[in-house]
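Dig into these lines:

——
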Amino acid sequence: MKTRCGWVSKDPLYLQYHDEEWGVPLHDDRRLFEFLILEGAQAGLSWLTILKKRDNYRRALAGFDARKLAHFGAGDLRRLLADPGIVRNRLKLEAAIANAQAFLAVQAEAGSFERFIWSFTDGATIQNRWRSLKDVPAQTVQAQAMSRALKQRGFRFVGPTICYAFMQAVGMVNDHVVRCFRYRQLARVR
């Protein structure tokens, strides 16, 4: 039997996410944008809730195409607020649209969002060696710096805890506990 991180439930969707996706270094701008938006949507909720709604978010938010999402207007916002397939929180949905605009500005400034965001870890995954979940921090100095930089550029729902969850999800840090079968696998991935 595989040993996994203690936060994983027996839900098949959660198991698949942990085993195949969480902590894998991600360098694709659109996917990075998707995770940033979903981590903000998750604030105050369980990640499993967001995972179950991820396909609905992809449909509702133009496949996380920042160019399209940046042009969403009042009618689009009304449509999103009426969509039972996503979290219908006005502030989070307005933030997704504003974040698309800020994302495009960062791409123009840095050449890619990937280059900008990975600069907070010097372009490499930070290999942590946590023995248990209680050792894993809620935020780090890198996440705090990322949060400040994103907020300065107009992003919303990007506090340091959300930024650290983002860093974990997209493999900027390897926060699988050392006994988890994925820890060693991802320690070799860059």
